[in-house]
Amino acid sequence: MMTSAEQAAHPMLRLLLAVVLGLLPLLAQATMSDCVAAGRDLSAVTQVLEDPGGTLTPDVVLRRTGADWRPASVRSLQPGYSASAWWLRIRLRNPGHEACAAWLLAGPAQLRDVQAFLPRQDGGWTHMVAGADHPLNAWPAPVRQPVFPLTLEAATDSVVLLRISSPGRRLAFTPQLWAEHAFERARIFESLVDGAVFGAMLLLVCFGVALGGVFRRPRLVYLALAVLAYTFYVGLLYNYGYVHLWPGNGALNDWLTRFMMAMTFFAGNLYFCDVLRVSRLHRAWSLALAAIRSAFLLLALGSQWIEPGLWQATIHRIDSVAVLLLLVVLAIQLRQRAVGWFPPTLLALGLLEPAMRAAYRVGLHTFYTADNHLFSVTVLPGGVILIATLISQMAKARRNELNAKEALERQRETERTRLEELVGLRTTQLQQALRARSGLLARIGHDLRAPLAAMLDSARQWQAGAVEKNFPRVIERNARHQMEMIDELVEFSRDELAELELIEAPGYLHGFLHEVAEQAHLEAARRGNTLECRFAEDLPPVVVADFRRLRQVLANLLGNAAKFTRDGRVVFAVQARPATPGQICLAVAVEDNGMGIPQAERGRLLQPFARGSNAGSHEGSGLGLAIVTQLLQLMGGTLRMEDASGGGSRFAFELALPIADEEAIETGGEVPTVAVDGAGRTVLVVDDQLQNRELLCDLLDGFGFVALAAADGHVALHLLRERNVDLVVTDQCMDGLDGWGLLAAVRAQWPRLPVLLYSAAPPRRPEGAESALAFDACLLKPLQPDALLSQIAELAGASASGLTGVEPARLSRWDPARVS
Amino acid sequence: MTGAQPPHILVIDDEPDALGAPFAAMRASGWRLSLATDGAQGCRRAELLAPDLILLDVRLPGMDGFAVCRRLRESPRTCAIPVLFLTIAGAPEERLEGLTQGAVDYVMKSCPPAELLARIQIHLELARRHAKPAHGDTPAMPDTEVILRAATRLISEELAALPPLAVIAERVGVTENRLSAIFRRQLGTTMFAWIREERLRQGRRLLADTTLDVQAIANAVGFRGAGNFSTAFRERHGFTPSRYREELRAGHVVAEGHDDVR
C-alpha cells in the first residue's frame, strides 16, 4: 500500500524533476560523442518477446518469427510484475564513418537479472550480465544500472539481444544508448540528487520521530518509521547497497530489501490504523489489523529463511487483505464522521497511481512511464506525506496548546472573579464585625456595672441594718453573675468555646428547670413580661448533662426573650420524648411575642457581637446567641430560629440526654446560712435513698431537730405510731408505700400532722386519689438548705430568723470562699 | 519498779471480774489500777487521771473499744498514753483494726497473767524512753472537739469509700444526731458539706501533686465518677480540674493554700 501511495505522486513529481534536472540533457548534449546522442531512446528500434518459461536461448529467440516479436511500445516496455523472462531485440545502426563506443542502458536499477547478448564476428554471442542477481564482479561496469558497453562499427547494423527477468519486481525497460561521458555525468548527477533526497528524508524522519516523541504523537513516529523503511527499501532496490555498501553480497542485499519492505508495511499499517482511529471501533477490527501487523513483522524477521517467491506472494496477499480492511474501516469511519479530511485525501492520493495506470492501460494518456531512474522520485511522495503529517500534527499540537492556554486563562479569570467577590464579602463581614465590636465596649460597660450597683446597694442596706433580705446571698449572686459575664468574654476572646469540654454529671432535671425559670421570672418581670413555663409531666427526674452550660444556654435564650419584649409574654416550654434506650430527647423552646427578628438577620445574629438591627439600646454584649449556638453544637443540638405564632421570635433546640438514677447524684455541697432552732422538734424523713435520708437528717440534726429516718411509707407509719413527730418530710416515689400513700394514711390517722413533699419531680397526684389530698408544701430536689430549713421550721413550728450566729472566723477556716 | 512512781494503769472493761488474775498480779507488783466500765466513762477517766497505760476491751456497751481508742488519740492529754487491747474478740480483722487505731498491742484475755504483765512493762518502758512532756499539764480538750477531730480524721482517711454517716458516728462513739450537731456547732456546716469540701480539697491536692487522671482522683476521693468530681470542682473553683492542672503547670496559680485559686 505504501508503494502505491508513494508512486501516486509520481507524475507530478516527474514534472518537478524535469525542471530540476532540466539542465542535464543540455549539458550532456554539449559533450556527447559523435555517434550517440545522450540517452538516445531506442524504443523505436526495439522489439519485445515474452518468454514465459524463461528457457529460451539467444539463438532460439532470434529464430522466432516476426509475429512473436512485438514492436516496443510504451505498454510493452512496461509489463509490470511478471515471472517471465523478457527479450528485447534492438537493432542498432551506426551511420557514421567510424566506430563509436557507447553504453546500452537496459532499464532502471531495480532489474535483478539483465543479460546482454552481443553478436560476435564469429556468429557467437558476447554474453554480459548485470543486476543484483549476478555477482558484482561479473558486471561489465560497477554502476547501479544495468548497462553494457558496446562498440558500434562504422556504417553497420547490428542486433543486440537483452534478456531481462526480475520476478517480484515491477518490470520496465528503457533501452537507451548513451555516450560514455554523458552517461557518467548523468549517473553522478543522479547519485547527487539521490543523496540529497536521501539525506533530506533522513532528516525528516529524525524530525518526525523526535517531534512525535516530544508531542506524544505516535502517528508521526509510525509514519516516520514507515518512510524510513521505505527509503531504505527503495535505496536497496536501486542497488545502492549492493554496489556501494556491501559490494557483491547478494544474500544480505536480498534479505535486507525484503526486511525493509515488510517493515514498511508494518509501520505503514500502524500509521493507517492510527489515522483511521481503528481503536475506537469494535475490538475485532483492532485485533484483525494487529494480526496483520504481526504477520508483517514475522515476515520481516523471517525474510532470511523463507523462500523468496513464497515470501513475495505471501506479503502481497497479506497486504491486499490489509488494504481491503483499511478501506472498509475508512468507509465506516467516514459514515460515522469519525475522521476528518486527511484520511480520504490520503486515500485519494493512494488511488491516484492505480487510476493513472488504469487510464494509461486503456489509452487515455501516454504520460505514464516507469523509467524512474531516480530513486528520489519514488521516495519523495512519502516525504511529502510525512511533511504534511508533520505540519498537521504540529498545528494540532499548537492548537491544543492554545486551547489549553485559553481554558487556563478562562479558569484564572473565573477564579479571580470569585476571589474578588470573596474579598468583597469578607470585607463587608469584617466591617460588620468591627462595628459590632465597637458597640460592644459601651454595652459591656453597662452590663458589668449593673451587678456592681446591686452589690453596692445591698452592702449599704446591710450596713444600715436592714434584715429583710439575705444580703450576703444577693451580693454573692451578683458577683457570680458578673464573674460569669467576664468568663464569657474571656472564653470568647480566647476562642475557648471551640475547645470547651463539657462536664456531664447526673442531676435533678425538675429542680434545675425551676431554678432557671425562677431566675428568668425575675428578669421577665423587670420589663413587665409574664413568664409561662410549660414543663411536660413526663420529664425524667434525673438526667446526665452539663447543667452549668445548659443553664448558660437557657439563661441566654430566656434573657433575650425578656430583653426584647415589653409587657408581653415569654413561654418556656420543655418536653421529652424517648430517644434511644437509656436516653431521652429533651425539646426546649423559648417563645416571646416581642419585636421578633427579621428573617434576613437570623443567620447573622448567630455571629459573635452581632445584634439585631432593632436591638437598639437594649443591653447585651451580642455574644449570647453565638455562645448558645456553639454550646448547643458541643452538646449535639442545633438552635432553630422560628417565627412565633404571636409575632415574636421562637428559639428551639433538642438534646439527647442519658437518663440516670437518683443514687448517682452527688449531693449536699451547700452550707446553710439561716438560723433555725429546731430544738425539741422531731422530723420524720422518708426517702428510699439512703444518701437522701442521711443528707436531710444531717442537716436537721445540725439545727437541733431530732431527725428520724424511714426508707418507705410503711416504716414511716410504724415510727409515727411509736414516736411523737412534728413533721413528715417525704419523697414521692418509693417502693412499698409511696409518698401519696403515706400522705393519705397520715391524713387519716394524724390529721394535724403536716407533711412536706421533698421530691425530684413536682407533685403528681396518682389516679383515683382524692382531689382534696394535698401536701402541706412541696419542694424540689436538689437540696437548697436555706429554703428547706425555713420551710421545715415553718411547718414544724420551730423558730427561724435571718442569719445564723456562727462567727465568721470559725466558718472561714473551712470555707473561706463563701464568706470572704 | 523502774522509778519511784509505781505505774498507773487504767482498765476499761465492762466485766472486770473476769480479769481477777491479772489484776492480782498487778497489785502484787505495786501498780495502781483504775477502772471504767464503759467507753464514755473510760474516756473521761483517761482525760482526768492521765494514766501511764490503758488496758482497753473491744466490746463495750455504747461506745466500743475502737471508738474509745480513736477518741483517746485525738485528745492532747491522752494521745501519748499507750493503749493495749485486752479482749476476747480475736477475729483477725478486729485485731488489725485495733492495731491500726493506734493501740500498741492486742492481747487476748486468755493470755497468761505473767505474759500480760511482761508486755505491759515493755510498753511502759518504751513510753518512758520516748520521754513525753508531762501530759498531765495540758489543758483538757472539750469532748465535742475530740469527737470532731476523731470524726474528721476518720472521714479523711476513708474518703474513697466512706461508710454511712450512722457508721461514722458509731465509730467515734456518738449517735448520728449528735455528730451532725457537733459539726454544725463546731464548724458551722453540715457533715455532707464538710465531706464535699474535704473531697475537693484532697482532689485538688492530688491534682497538684500526682499525675493521676481525673477519673482516678475522683475515685480516690469518693466521687461517683469523674463528671461529678469535675462538676463539683468547677462549681467550687470556677474552672475544671483539667484546666486547674494546666494552669498549675503554666504557673498561673499556686497549688498550696486554701484560698480561692483564682
Automatic annotation (TrEMBL), chain B:
Chain positions found as 4-aspartylphosphate? 57
Gene3D superfamilies registered for this protein in UniProt: 3.40.50.2300, Homeodomain-like (1.10.10.60)
Protein name as catalogued:
DNA-binding response regulator
Q: Which organism is it from?
A: Rhodanobacter glycinis
**Domain Response regulatory intervals:** 8-124
Q: Keywords for this entry?
A: DNA-binding, Phosphoprotein, Transcription, Transcription regulation, Two-component regulatory system
Family matches, as PANTHER family: REGULATOR OF RPOS, TWO-COMPONENT RESPONSE REGULATOR ORR33
Per the database record, which ranges form the HTH araC/xylS-type domain? 149-247
InterPro entries on file: CheY-like_superfamily, Homeodomain-like_sf, HTH_AraC, HTH_AraC-typ_CS, Sig_transdc_resp-reg_receiver, Tscrpt_reg_AraC-type_HTH, WalR-like
User: A single Gene Ontology molecular function, please?
Assistant: transcription cis-regulatory region binding
Of the GO CC terms on this record, one is:
protein-DNA complex
